[in-house]
Amino acid sequence: MLTTLNRIFVVQFYARNAGTFLVIVLLAFGFLSSVEHKALITAALGSPFFLALIFGLWSLYLVKTIAFIHDQLTAPQHLFVQTLWLVPTPTRLALWLCLQTAVMMPIIAYAIWMLQLAGHYRVWGPFSAIVLFVLGLVIVGAWAADYRLRHPAPNAIRLPRLNIKLPYELFFPAYWLRHEPLSLLLTKAVSGLLLAGVCRMYPTDDYDQRLLLIGLLLAVLAHSQVGGQVSEFERRYLLVLPNLPLSWQQRFGRYAFTYGLIWLPELLILLRNCPTDVRLDYVLWLWLAGWGWLLLMHSLAYDRDVLPERWLTGIFTGFIGGLLLIMFGFPVGGWLLVGWVGAVVIWYRSFTT
């Protein structure tokens, strides 16, 4: 029984989120060395606020696992799993605990690393907090899965709805916020933390403005899946859109507005954490360059059936190539020009052909 449930929930969870895990690993361990990770963990062990922030990210991961298990339980091909409620309660809870532990393994592995350093520095307060919090995550996840199993169609509380007429440019941001909030939150959290981190790192050593460009590159790559999400959203909900009498300039302008709205929080982060040695106009050029590259990735991904493996390969290749260009001093103005001109040219060719 455990083998069958493992194939339904655990294997499918990691298979479906393989691309997300790959991007996180590349961003986390490709940008930071093990020494820097240890420094972050040490800072978290000494700062309740920083530790609470890590706990918050782990809680978001728990929400993602709960949502996935709920979706699998209600999938038509998995309705036979509903018979699991006939299993004695202790055995059933033990199965859910095993499954939840398996899907939480990335969090548990990182927590073990933190526990090792906490034991080394003999900080038993954070040590106990990490142990209790991880146990709580596993127990809550198992309870939520068992609750949905016993209540396959729970009564929902309906709140009053506020109807607001949205312009077309806000269709996808509103959909992203309402129906895929975890994807939105993770994307903006990774992007914002990367930009804030490089801005805080800038005054600590003899860095130049290339460090900010590296942060911009990573923040843009954190949005690499958004173009595919926009395309999928429109194929599903806006089938009439290709037949509307809109020129390619009008369509591109609308997408530019949408991505400018999505990219706006990064401008606020850059302005808030701008190093004193960096001019304000450079920060604005930096943000405009990122906006152009978001549009370029959108033009490359829009209305194309690109395999996830090929897209991730292209993203990784682009990261290596961009890093080399930054190291050799390619200026921010060049990045801005290539991003915007490339987006316009590719969009024009795609639209006219």
Automatic annotation (TrEMBL):
Organism, as annotated: Spirosoma agri
Keyword vocabulary terms for this entry: Membrane, Transmembrane, Transmembrane helix
Superkingdom, taxonomy of origin: Bacteria
Presence of the UniProt keyword Transmembrane helix in the record: yes
Regions crossing the membrane: 13-32, 39-61, 93-115, 127-145, 211-232, 252-271, 283-302, 322-348
Protein name: ABC transporter permease
